[in-house]
């Protein structure tokens, strides 16, 4: 049987969500089909990300600021701050579930958007749109829930499972106590899970120098970015 060629599409320019006074364009392709998992693997290893059944990558006209980023699991060295955070949260209850949305998650998601991303595309998502974000996936996907000892849901990570690692698709959390650093802790725990499962990498999406929203990613070392057609170490001052 002859396979149909994979089709790619380019979006119209739109305001950049990361850097002011810039426009973004993306290249998109459909992941649905019997080869979705292998296609997702290949595209992720080439710097693409997944949203719903679509894989995308930036192809902006005059900007190359967005750098696909991943962490080599075996080489990761937590900072002292990250070590202290890890020890402080050892009483957190963590469960891995199928990508099934819940109202409890949605309440936390809405509060996170209201406090952190009031001007973002997700700020006014309906329940159905949130449900699609979680469940509309053509690849193996898990939801990781983080709960306090009192069973309060404080963090949720949507994660794709790949042949060579895990890909953190989207994370949201309780922002009322910033010192708890739930976003950082979720990455540390995903690194731990990847190590347990023998994976090579944890994919973190795009690192964007100059974007305050993405600055936290540079605190995880060592890291790799995809540029010039291959993965290379991220070299910036600690």
Explain the overall architecture.
This protein is an alpha+beta fold. The protein folds into two domains: 9-65, no CATH class; 68-233, 3-Layer(aba) Sandwich (Aminopeptidase), CATH 3.40.630.30. 24% of the residues lie in helices and 29% in strands. It is built from five helices and 14 strands. The chain has helices at residues 36-44, 80-88, 103-116, 127-135, 182-196; strands at residues 9-10, 14-15, 23-24, 26-30, 49-51, 54-58, 67-72, 93-97, 141-147, 153-161, 165-173, 201-207, 224-227, 230-233. An eight-stranded mixed β-sheet has the order 8-9-10-11-12-7-13-14. Strands 1-4-6-5 form a four-stranded antiparallel β-sheet, with helices on one face. Strands 2-3 form a two-stranded antiparallel sheet. The longest helix has 15 residues, at 182-196. The termini are far apart. The mean pLDDT is 94.
Structure at a glance:
The protein has 238 residues and is of the alpha+beta class. Helix content is 24%, strand content 29%.
Number of helices: 5
Fourth-level CATH superfamily of the largest domain = Gcn5-related N-acetyltransferase (GNAT)
What is the name of the CATH topology of the largest domain? Aminopeptidase
Instruction: Extract low-pLDDT stretches.
Output: none
């Amino acid at each position: 049987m002859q396979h149909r060629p994979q089709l790619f599409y380019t979006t119209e320019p739109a305001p950049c969500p990361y850097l002011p006074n810039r426009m973004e364009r993306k290249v998109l392709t459909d992941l649905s089909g019997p080869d979705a998992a292998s296609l997702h693997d290949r595209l992720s290893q080439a710097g693409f990300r997944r949203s719903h059944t679509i894989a995308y990558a930036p192809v902006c006209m005059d900007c190359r600021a967005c750098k696909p980023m991943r962490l080599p699991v075996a080489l990761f060295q937590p900072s002292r701050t990250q070590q202290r955070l890890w020890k402080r949260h050892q009483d957190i209850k963590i469960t891995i579930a199928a990508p099934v949305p819940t109202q409890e998650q949605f309440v936390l998601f809405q509060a996170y958007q209201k406090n952190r991303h009031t001007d973002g595309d997700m700020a006014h998502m309906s329940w159905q749109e949130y449900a699609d974000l979680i469940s509309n996936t053509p690849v193996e996907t898990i939801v990781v829930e983080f709960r306090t000892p009192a069973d309060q849901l404080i963090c949720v990570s949507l994660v794709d499972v790949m042949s060579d690692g895990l890909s953190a698709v989207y994370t949201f959390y309780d922002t009322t106590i910033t010192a708890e650093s739930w976003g950082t802790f979720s990455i540390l725990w995903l690194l731990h899970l990847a190590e347990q499962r023998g994976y090579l990498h944890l994919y973190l999406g795009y690192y964007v120098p100059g974007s305050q929203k993405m600055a936290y990613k540079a605190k995880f070392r060592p890291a790799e970015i995809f540029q010039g057609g291959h993965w290379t170490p991220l070299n910036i001052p600690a």
